[in-house]
Design a protein that fits this description.
By secondary structure, the chain is α/β, with parallel strands linked by helices. Helices cover 36% and strands 21% of the residues. It contains eleven helices and 14 strands. The strands form three sheets. A seven-stranded mixed β-sheet has the order 3-2-1-4-6-5-7, with helices on both faces. It has a five-stranded parallel β-sheet with strand order 12-9-8-13-14, sandwiched between helices. It has a two-stranded antiparallel ribbon with strand order 10-11. Strand 2, helix 2 and strand 3 form a beta-alpha-beta unit. It starts with a strand and ends with a strand.
């Protein structure tokens, strides 16, 4: 069935939200799908809920995770899947109406070599954290502008339960074979590495639920959410040009951590800041200079580790005035 959509869904203690999630899938106007739901040794009633739905609906297929964790669960789901089109879903989220049909239509239009994503919306019973709201707004801005890869080192540019891709393209990037967490960001980096084109659906295609027990809040692998080691891992392989001077801009917590990552990897760099109180000071055996040193440096690559939105806009303006281009000469790492 060439147009079959395989939906891969790890399930771990999702009982309070699981039935609503499954109902939102069943309510889709696109009917040619299969759901591979992998119970990751849940201790609540998730397994019973999945068994109940799978008995009533043959497109819902329940399995138990052979290992433990999201990556082994995704591997199991992918192994059991049969569709030409692959999608990932989270067991505590909801599909808005027409999600599957809209993403499928765009993917068929785009063809192989592309992945498709759409807009997201967070919701929560007790109100949303501003950070989640800003992240969703940022993702939706990327959808509007179709410039996802420009900000790949800033944060994960594609929501993990909101992409469609052809099986052939997923196989080419290694699917779920890697053991790096966060697995969703790592996979998106591999999409970028393969130079897949992101094609955007301008409508809402995913409803992201925030709650106190969601994996990104509770699991140790997601605890450190700046992911600088992962970002450097891919930057060094994909965009770093060792024949150009490398510079870090920013000496706050993220700048310091990034400096440590580069030092541990024995990579030379210059360190600059726009805080005059730090100029000339030694941190980690490195002397901080004024950001104006960039003007005197020939053809640098600059890793910007300054998180404040207002400061980022000023840095971007300054670098553009110097003729530097984002994604070639400078990269936001936070």
């Amino acid at each position: 069935m060439s147009s079959l959509i395989s939906i891969l869904m790890p399930v771990k203690n999702a009982a309070p939200f699981l039935a609503a999630c499954l109902e939102s899938i069943l309510a889709q106007d696109e009917e040619n799908w299969e759901l591979l739901a992998i119970d990751d040794h849940s201790s609540d009633s998730s397994r019973a809920i999945l068994e109940n739905y799978s008995q009533k609906e043959q497109r819902i297929k329940r399995y138990t995770n052979d290992g433990e964790g999201i990556i082994p669960a995704l591997r199991k789901a992918y192994q059991k899947s049969k569709g030409k089109i692959i999608h990932r879903m989270d067991a505590d989220d909801l599909m808005p109406p027409k999600k599957l049909s809209r993403l499928k239509k765009e993917l068929i239009k785009a063809g192989e070599g592309c992945l498709v994503s759409g807009k997201v919306e967070y919701f929560a019973k007790n109100g949303l954290n501003d950070g989640y709201r800003r992240y969703a707004d940022w993702l939706n801005q990327l959808i509007e502008q179709d410039n996802h890869w420009q900000d790949i080192y800033k944060e994960c540019v594609i929501a993990s339960p909101n992409w469609f891709i052809y099986r052939n393209d997923l196989d080419k990037v290694g699917a779920f074979n890697a053991n790096r967490y966060p697995e969703d960001y790592d996979l998106v980096f591999r999409f970028y590495q393969a130079k897949l084109k992101v094609c955007s659906v301008k409508q809402l295609t995913h409803l992201w639920r925030d709650h106190e027990k969601r994996s990104s809040r509770t699991l140790e692998v997601y605890k450190n959410n700046d992911y600088l080691e992962l970002k450097w891992h891919y930057f060094k392989r994909l965009d770093y040009q060792s024949n150009r001077p490398l510079m870090i801009w920013g000496a706050g917590p993220k700048g310091k951590k990034l400096a440590k990552v580069l030092q541990q990897d024995q990579v030379d760099f210059e360190w600059v800041s726009n805080n005059p109180n730090k100029h000339g000071k030694e941190i980690y055996r490195q002397i901080l200079a004024s950001f104006e040193k960039i003007v005197r440096t020939n053809n640098p690559q600059i890793l910007v580790a300054v998180g404040q939105k207002g400061a980022q806009a000023k840095i971007k303006s300054f670098l553009h005035q110097q003729g530097h281009q984002q994604g070639r000469d400078y990269f936001f790492f936070c």
